[in-house]
Amino acid sequence: MNDSVDKLVIFLAKRDGIDKLVKTFQYVSKLVNWHVEATNPDISKRFKQWEVAAGLSRKAFRTGRFLTGFNVLRRNPGSTLSLRLLAVFANAGEMVYFFFDHFLWLARIETIDANLARRMSFISAFGESVGYVFFIISDFIMLRKGVKAERALRSSKEKAAEEEKKIKEIRIDRIMRLMAVAANVADLFIAIADIEPNPFCNHTVTLGISGLVSAWAGWYRNWPS
Question: How confident is the prediction along the chain (225 residues), in pLDDT tens digits per residue?
């Protein structure tokens, strides 16, 4: 019990940990609002307010987040030229997303012209979707490399403890990358809903489930081991 509490404290001490928790609030309230909208307008209104407040607070909390892309590229540019290029495009898209998200937040709270909100939302979502596509491609390449590396280790005649340790590390990395792919695909649906509104991506259930998949996959990846 104490171990779980300690992990929760560590999780909530992270910026990403708080973001995933508030994101859960945002999309649970979106789904509840949709579910009770016709039967209980008063409750629906309260959950809608909670959704909007959670969304705006996440934008405020992400102030300056676009700078993290530079740090990621500096620390881990990629082992090959193709992975380096994918990392540059992925992080560039994410930086565009977070940078213009600042202006979207300011437009939503009417600190700047509220009419700019739609344009800022489009630019932010476009950068976001570009970033997600390249992150997904990069993760699939690394997953494939991991599968090949594991097969090579398993086909080895020697079953040393060091090899078993490497196999375990590959499996852990695979799970984390699959969680990243799930989160990025889910967030891509949300971004597409902003870029090119359509009945499927813009449906409340699609947005709600996508938001929760992204939040909980991120929750898993950020939870202390």
Answer: 678 888 889 998 988 999 999 999 999 999 999 999 999 999 999 999 999 999 999 999 889 888 888 888 887 776 788 899 999 999 999 999 999 999 999 999 999 999 999 999 999 999 999 999 999 999 999 999 999 999 988 887 666 777 888 999 999 999 999 999 999 999 999 999 999 999 999 999 999 999 999 999 999 999 987
For residue 24, give the nearest of 180, 213, 212 by alpha carbon.
212
Distances (CA, A) of 6 to 13, 16, 101, 103, 104: 11, 17, 33, 36, 36
The residue to which tokens 């979502």 are assigned: 125
**Cα–Cα distance for residue pair 17/28, rounded to 1 Å:** 17
Q: Output the CA angle 11-171-73, nearest 5 degrees.
A: 60
Instruction: Give the pTM.
Output: 0.91
Residue ranges of the domains in the chain? 2-222
